[in-house]
């Protein structure tokens, strides 16, 4: 667990620096150091995380067998090109990680009011949801969407549409990013909260959303229809609610509502972040009953997490201005470390692999230096020989 914890501590220390020091001139150097650290952890992983088996197999067999997975064309062509240039899957993985970390860091530094805090939240949230260390196609697509942020804020719909189309060539879920364009409008806080509360109906009555999805599947674009049908027929649709993490889920809803109430939205950028946070919370409720929907959550979460540090601006009489940010940072860090820690330490048996939940994550293996047993670690979809 040490590599993960080390990166978290470095990022948390950076967030504290950002809040407490008056001279912020050197923060950019520290921010670049943090980004490099994330890149090295994510880009040089070996048989760690998930999905490496399918991607590695497709990388080496693609030129021979073609796109038998029927993955999106952009990813398939990129894989073929990198196979020809590098001939090594882990060079390809590092290249993708470089693009994702660069895009995210550029986005955070440019648009976040507290970039080091936002980078800390990004890492602690996006390792458990798989974007950083699992779903390579979706991570590329998300990185492309981030380059379209300026078109959202500049109100250039056609240009943003092109960005979404390019992203969809790497993962079809990117088409769900289109509503982001309309998230710059200021919506009454009461309406946002009501929307979140209404979404909880689907959390408690999951079959309602299932019937709705079955109704619209026939009109979805071909690739998305295939994926939706696969999920509906597969083990990733539970059809029932699990209350194992009920208290944690309820707390996450409360946090979102409190943030919406406390944040003072001063411009369209703030509107974008708060509206994205609201949509993230709604998707979270829906995906508890229909897991395919969690594919859309990272697209909004990446914008929504930039809303969290906006509460640092709250001023309370007779309390030093750094106290509120520090308390909020510590509480958020502890709260979002819970799923992160569960990912690394849970020994409960996964229904997907039949192995412990943390099997693919700890210990962390590096492609340049790893013990012999790392070669034997199986991905979630590999069976014991």
Short description:
This protein is mainly alpha-helical and 385 residues long. It contains 16 helices and no strands. It is globular.
Helix vs. strand class: mainly alpha
Shape, per Cα inertia axes: globular
Model regions low in confidence, pLDDT < 50 over at least 5 residues: 234-244
| Sheet with the most strands, sense and barrel status | none
Question: N- to C-terminal separation?
Answer: 27 Å
Helicity range of the residues? 55-70%
Number of helices: 16
* Count of β-strands: 0
Rg to the nearest angstrom?
21 Å
What's the average pLDDT? 88
Provide the fold topology.
Blueprint: H1 2-20, H2 27-43, H3 52-65, H4 73-85, H5 89-111, H6 115-126, H7 136-146, H8 149-153, H9 157-168, H10 189-204, H11 206-216, H12 222-233, H13 246-262, H14 268-287, H15 297-304, H16 323-345
Helix pairs in contact: 1-2, 1-6, 1-16, 2-5, 2-6, 3-4, 5-6, 5-7, 6-16, 7-9, 10-11, 10-13, 10-14, 13-14, 14-15
3D structure, described in words:
- The protein has 385 residues and is mainly α.
- It has 16 helices and no strands.
- The protein has helices spanning 2-20, 27-43, 52-65, 73-85, 89-111, 115-126, 136-146, 149-153, 157-168, 189-204, 206-216, 222-233, 246-262, 268-287, 297-304, 323-345.
- Helix 1 runs antiparallel to helix 6 and helix 1 (2-20) runs antiparallel to helix 16 (323-345).
- The two termini are 27 Å apart.
- The relative contact order is 0.13.
- Mean pLDDT is 88; it is low at 234-244.
